[in-house]
Design brief:
- The chain has one domain: Sandwich (Jelly Rolls).
- The protein is globular and about 55 Å long.
- It has 277 residues and is mostly beta strands.
- It has 2 helices and 26 strands.
- A 7-stranded antiparallel sheet has the order 1-22-19-24-17-14-13, with no helix packed on it. A 7-stranded antiparallel sheet has the order 2-3-4-11-6-9-12.
- Bound molecules: cobalt (II) ion.
- Cobalt (II) ion (CO) binds at residues 57, 60, 62, 67, 104, 106.
């Protein structure tokens, strides 16, 4: 079988603002790539200017999907309306199932220095949209780092690589989320499920994927295959993310992602009436 990794599409994010005015780059969830089932959104935030991030993401609701926050540098404090609280620090990841509803804030826990991270929104199938909310808060030292190839470090956040499983427990779309850091020019091969959708996002340096170059800030959507391979130039970093498409209708109204207009009306109503969380 053909094992060549082929790029379907390359996109670069667009600068935007969210929360109370945090500057960020939206890579999935913008006109060039509105969605990539099961992924609804991918944002990168990163600045060493406090005025770009201090306003944070004050209290806001979510229903019907999961939010994944991966901190590359800095500290973010998370608080919800039920009293759950936690800090996501450099190298840590929070996988939050909003399910039937969460109202929370995500605020920088720093007043200076670099804050950098990624937030990915993962959709839920209809039968899990109204599930009980939960959090998986993973610290950097709980994430296995595989260094079987000199010059390449692979952090397994979710799913499996080389027989090592990431600490985030299996989720509806059977995700895989790897952070690959190439200190020397090296290649990584990842066995894939042909049913899964995969993307590679280069957040540092430059990669070769198939016969194309992927620069810093570019995301490649890959054609389905049984093995993907990515070559990183020296001092390059990327995430490789995959998941099973859900193939259901999506109706989205801001932070509510459901299957029908009626369910969206219900979500807005529940939020207004104080019944969401
Ligand atoms: Co949120």
């Amino acid at each position: 079988m053909d094992q060549t990794t082929t790029i379907k599409q390359i996109v670069r994010g667009i600068p935007t603002q969210d929360g109370a005015g945090v500057k960020l780059t939206r890579i999935i969830g913008q006109p060039g790539l509105p969605r990539l089932d099961p992924f609804l959104m991918l944002d990168e935030f990163g600045s060493d200017k406090p005025q770009d991030y201090l306003a944070g993401f004050p209290e806001h609701p979510h229903r019907g999907f999961q939010t994944v926050t991966y901190m590359l540098a800095g500290k973010m404090e998370h608080r919800d309306s039920s009293g759950n609280t936690g800090i996501i620090e450099t190298g840590g990841i929070q996988w939050m199932n909003a399910g039937k509803g969460i109202i929370h804030s995500e605020m920088p826990k720093q007043t200076e220095g670099l804050m950098r991270g990624l937030q990915l929104w993962v959709n839920l199938p209809s039968h899990e949209k109204m599930s009980e909310p939960n959090y998986q808060d993973i610290k950097a030292d709980q994430v296995p780092v595989i260094t079987d190839i000199a010059g390449l470090e692979v952090r397994v956040l979710v799913g499996e690589y080389n027989g090592i499983s990431g600490p985030v427990k299996a989720q509806a779309v059977q995700p895989i989320f790897l952070d690959c850091r190439f200190s020397l020019g090296k290649s990584i091969s990842v066995p894939c499920d042909i049913e899964q959708v995969f993307f590679v996002y280069c957040y540092e340096g430059q990669l070769n994927v198939g016969n194309q170059t992927l620069d810093k800030g570019q995301l490649a959507v890959l054609e389905p295959s049984i093995m993907l391979s990515v070559s990183g130039r020296a001092n390059s970093q990327c995430i490789i993310v995959g998941g099973r498409p859900i193939n259901e209708p999506i109706v989205q109204y801001g932070p509510f992602v459901m299957n029908t207009e009626d369910e969206i009306r219900q979500a807005v109503d529940d939020f207004r009436q104080g019944r969401l969380a």
